[in-house]
Amino acid sequence: MEAVGQEVLDVQQRVDALAKDFHEFVKKDQMAKELQLAETRVVKIRQEIDIKYGHYEEVRRRVTGILQAVDISLVKKETIENTTEEHMLAAPRYWLAPCLIALAAWLNDNRELADRAMMEALRRDDEKTSLFFALVTRRGTRYKASREWLDRYFGLQDPHQLEREMIVLIDGFTNGIFGPEARAKCGKHINEWIEELSQKVGFVEEQQEQWKVALEAKAKRLNDEVYPYLRQYSSTWPELETSLQGAKLHLVIHNYFKDIFSKEITPAKSIAVAVDALLDTLVSKFDDEELPLRKDERLQSLIIEENGDRNTAQQRFNAEKTLEHRVSFTQLLTNFAMHPDVSQASIATQKFSIALSKDWIRQAHDDLTLNNRAAVPKKIDLQIEEWTGSTINGDNEQELVESLTNHIHDRRDKDLAQVRLMLKHWVGLAAGIIFVFMGFGVPFLFVFALIGILYFFVSKRNLAKTKEKMKQDYDKLLQSCKDILRAVLSDVVDWRKEYEAEDLNAVKVSELLDEITPEQYTFSGLDNARAVINN
Questions:
Q1: Closest CA to 527 of 185, 188, 181
Q2: Which of 118, 302, 373, 395 sits at 20 to 30 Å (Cα–Cα) from 408?
Q3: Nearest to 508 by CA among 222, 255, 260
Q4: Confidence grade of residue 347 (pLDDT, cut at 50, 70, 90)
Q5: How far apart, in whole angstroms, are the C-alpha atoms of residue 118 and residue 137?
Q6: How remote is the C-alpha of 504 from its chain's centroid?
Q7: Separation between Cα atoms, residue 275 and residue 140, nearest integer Å
Q8: Is the pTM of this model over 0.85?
């Protein structure tokens, strides 16, 4: 029964190993299929965007084209007016089409047409139209008109639910594109928004959680080849892996912020060039009609980046919140700081957003640090060949080796106890002796007696060899297990050292954030006036 029980355990171990391999195979196969599907889906989405909204691209290209053509006086005003009218007919619902009509009429001093087109544009999308004309009038150094359009735009805003194109305004503010008065007014509104949001119950906690999610999204997975023995022989490895990733996150965050603040802000050659860049962003990146397809495109792109891991890609997508229709001002700051490639934020806006959010970032980072330290496993469980043990710092090697040795010896003794002479062997010996006494005068009985006695002694000799072979195998197993144990303990020591070293980097993030202020990161190179943020 003991032998059968041992065989059952061995079979169960093999089945468990097979199940693990099967699950890994299924996971890899599923990821490969998800990757292939995402690659196909991205192509189809982009084709669909081109088919449904390709005519919008023609309208978009005309915006800066008209302004630049007027700058160098190479295109007749009548030509500009005619081409804008054609695009108005081709894009009957698009907010930018009547903007082009108004722009062309303004250039031709046709006030009546300009007013009608402007009203139609405002009807289609009041916020984008107001921001569009604020930029256009700023480009033409019409400061009064630009301020009025900005006032209108700000009057439409709710800091709890801002449109995504707010990045264009913040980019203009941080890059010094608006005039000195408008820039001061922008700063005042930003402070008012933050003050209004701060009155909300639980605001601080909400910001901490929001930034915790954003910071955690920067965590990088450990290399699959590090700490191979801990991975294989410790059931505590998942907690160890998570804790080390959390400790390594400190340096990732520090380097990410440091890289942003170390980059030079290259000012545009002129206000026209700077505004043209913002106009390109406004008209090409923030059309709500395309938003569902853009969201799907972003998700599929993240799946491709994660090599088919849809769950991780979905988590990253949810954490970004860069393609939500309306979000709070503080969420926009998070998007600008952490996801500039998707939110279309410039370096100047990234710097300003981080500086403005630094208190929330520090609180969120401190919470992550405390939570990660609290989650570090104090005891690390080990399992080698059915033997289990535990260690804290890997310094109890002698104790564990003795425990492992006793375990292997117990297994050896139990298995050796199963290798013994059975009833059939003793029956063969007894029959041989009986046949010896009965075989006088009966030759064939001597033959049976000889067979029975030989069977007994040959079996006894074979059992002795089996025992000796078993002892040698267990000696080899014990040595192998000791080597594995020492390798695991070495991994434990290295892991503890690496964790402590990485955890010390936490203070670097706080020191970096303490050195920055929002006032440092509002560029005013395109105006002689100094940027001011009213407190």
A1: 181
A2: 395
A3: 255
A4: confident
A5: 13
A6: 23
A7: 10
A8: no
DSSP designation for 196: H
Distance CA(486)–CA(489), nearest Å, equals 5
Rounded-to-integer distance, Cα 500 and Cα 93, Å: 60
Whole-number Å distance between alpha carbons of 130 and 145: 11
CB 237 within 8 A of CB 230: yes
Specify which residues 390 forms β-bridges with. 381
**Residue 385, SS3?**
coil
Q: Report yes or no: 228 and 241 within 8 Å, Cβ to Cβ.
A: no
Are 473 and 326 in contact by the 8 Å Cβ rule? The answer is no
8 Å CB contact between 102 and 81: no
What is d(CA 44, CA 330) in angstroms, rounded to the nearest whole number?
34
Q: Per DSSP, what are the bridge partners of residue 388?
A: 383
CA angle 94, 96, 99 (to 5 degrees): 130
pLDDT of 38-56, one tens digit each?
Answer: 888 888 887 776 766 665 6
As beta bridge partners, residue 384 has 387
Nearest to 147 by CA among 158, 159, 135: 135
Q: Residues 6 or more apart from 336 whose CB is under 8 A from it?
A: 167, 170, 343, 345, 349, 350, 353
DSSP character string of 326-345: EE-HHHHHHHHHH-HHHHT-
For residue 380, the cross-strand partners are: 391
Q: Which DSSP letter does residue 531 get?
A: P
| pLDDT tens sequence across 379-409 | 999 988 888 899 999 889 999 999 989 988 8
Give yes or no for a contact between 384 and 484, defined as CB atoms under 8 angstroms apart.
yes
Tokens of 291: 């938003």
> Any idea what the Cα angle at residue 26 is, between residues 316 and 42, rounded to 5°?
45
Beta-sheet strands, E only, within 235-384: 326-327, 380-384
CB burial readout 300-332, b (16+ within 10 A) else e? bbbbbebebbbebbebbbebbbbbeeebbbbbb
Whole-number CA gyration radius for the chain: 38
CA distance 349 to 355: 10
Rounded to whole angstroms, the Cα distance separating 14 from 22 reads 12
Instruction: Tell me how far apart the 2 most distant CA atoms of the chain are, in Å.
Output: 143
CA-to-CA separations, 331 to 91, 206, 339, 365, 384, in angstroms, rounded: 33, 10, 11, 17, 49
Helices (H) and strands (E) in the chain, counts: 22, 4
3-state secondary structure of 522: coil
| Residue 170 near residue 336, CB atoms below 8 Å | yes
Residue 28 token pair: 């890899």
For the record, the structure tokens of 371 come out as 């939570």
Q: What distances in angstroms separate CA 266 from CA 274, 277, 280, 352, 526, one per listed residue?
A: 11, 13, 18, 15, 11
Average pLDDT for the chain: 80
DSSP 300-312: HHHHHHTTT-HHH
